[in-house]
Here is the input.
Amino acid sequence: QVQLVESGGGLVQAGGSLRLSCSTSGNIFSIFIMGWYRQAPGKERELVATVTTGGSRNYADSVKDRFSISKDNAKNTVYLQMNSLKPEDTAVYYCKAESGFGSVWGQGTQVTVSS
Here is the structure.
């Protein structure tokens, strides 16, 4: 099994930056893709960014050129650097791992962007 713990959320003004972290543990060698998703109040959960074990990255159009996903294999951690934040980025952000054991979600971390 794989376990995920997110951190780094908070309150920031529009135009500011935050970095989210997702620490992985357990059967991490079975993971083949990691991703960040978000869910705003009253909306469905949506993909923000993903990164494969090979380093291929994919972004939602709404965050391209503002957000960057990266991973530190030595620390077993995936990051989401969020720049030029907008009020519409306000949501609970979730980390997700796809592995040989299936999909695993973190508990989520709140990001609030004030105008």
Q: What stands out?
A: The first strand starts at residue 2 and ends at 7.
